[in-house]
Amino acid sequence: MQNEPEVVVLRLGHRPGRDNRMTTHVGLTARALGADRVVIAGEASNPKGTIEDITGRFGGPFEVELTDSHRQLLRDWDGAVVHLTMYGLPIQDVEGDIREDHREDHLLVVVGAEKVPFDVYERADYNVGVTNQPHSEVAGLAVFLDRLFEGRELDREWEDADRQVVPKETGKQVEPVDEE
Amino acid sequence: MQNEPEVVVLRLGHRPGRDNRMTTHVGLTARALGADRVVIAGEASNPKGTIEDITGRFGGPFEVELTDSHRQLLRDWDGAVVHLTMYGLPIQDVEGDIREDHREDHLLVVVGAEKVPFDVYERADYNVGVTNQPHSEVAGLAVFLDRLFEGRELDREWEDADRQVVPKETGKQVEPVDEE
Question: Domains of chain B (ranges plus CATH)?
Answer without folding.
Answer: 7-176 (3.40.1280.10)
